[in-house]
């Protein structure tokens, strides 16, 4: 039998994911790489999802994003590199007119760590939790 704690954890994760699914098209999600984009797609989160471009400075990328979007959801990994990256991105984005949303990242981080420290591992975790509570069907 599945614990009620597991069910509550999955429900809380699903609430955050639903918020990401329902955001408006002028709000982009910024992730670290291709596998993060795929993981969010597997969870039914639509674009725009933008991955960091290693060939461009963070400042230039942030200025470019601010010209194209009204808001940016930062969704970097929950490891040390991801934490540092989130802080740098937030500081650069806040210098522009774009709104920066870090709340989904913070909420997911509290719900998935220490088991998961990377965005790319979200989809497999959610699927395991869904199987554990008997809701294998995707909520999209």
Report on the structure:
By secondary structure, the chain is an alpha/beta fold. The chain has one domain (4-133): 3-Layer(aba) Sandwich (Dna Topoisomerase Vi A Subunit, Chain: A, domain 2), CATH 3.40.1360. Helix content is 54%, strand content 11%. The protein has helices spanning 4-21, 34-42, 58-68, 80-94, 103-112, 122-133; strands at residues 27-31, 49-51, 71-74, 99-101. The protein has a 4-stranded parallel beta sheet. α4 (80-94) links the parallel β3 (71-74) and β4 (99-101). Mean pLDDT is 91; it is low at 136-140.
Helix content: 40-55%
CATH topological fold name:
Dna Topoisomerase Vi A Subunit, Chain: A, domain 2
Distance between the termini: 25 Å
Question: In DSSP terms, counting alpha (H) and pi (I) runs of 4 or more, how many helices?
Answer: 6
At CATH level 2, the architecture is 3-Layer(aba) Sandwich
Q: Unreliable stretches, pLDDT < 50, 5 or more residues? A: 136-140
Strand adjacency order, main sheet = 2-1-3-4
CA-based shape: elongated
- Kindly provide the name of the CATH class: Alpha Beta
**Number of strand segments:** 4
**Cα Rg:** 15 Å
> Mean of the pLDDT scores?
91
- Give the DSSP E fraction (strand runs of 2 or more residues): 5-15%
Q: What structural class should be given to the helix and strand makeup?
A: alpha/beta
The assembly state of the depicted protein chains is: single chain
List the secondary-structure elements in sequence, H or E. HEHEHEHEHH
Number of domains: 1
Biggest pleated-sheet summary:
4 strands, parallel
């Amino acid at each position: 039998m599945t614990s009620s704690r597991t069910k509550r954890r999955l429900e809380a994760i699903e609430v955050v994911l639903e918020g990401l699914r329902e955001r408006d098209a002028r709000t982009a999600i910024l992730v670290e790489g291709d596998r993060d984009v795929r993981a969010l797609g597997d969870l039914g989160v639509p674009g725009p999802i933008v991955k960091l471009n290693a060939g461009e400075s963070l400042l230039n990328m942030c200025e470019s994003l601010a010209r194209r979007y009204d808001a940016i959801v930062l969704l970097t990994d929950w490891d040390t590199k991801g934490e540092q990256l989130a802080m740098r991105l937030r500081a650069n984005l806040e210098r522009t007119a774009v709104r920066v949303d870090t709340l989904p990242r913070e909420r997911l981080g509290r719900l998935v760590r220490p088991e998961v420290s990377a965005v790319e591992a979200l989809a497999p975790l959610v699927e395991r939790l869904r199987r554990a509570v008997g809701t294998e069907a995707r909520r999209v």
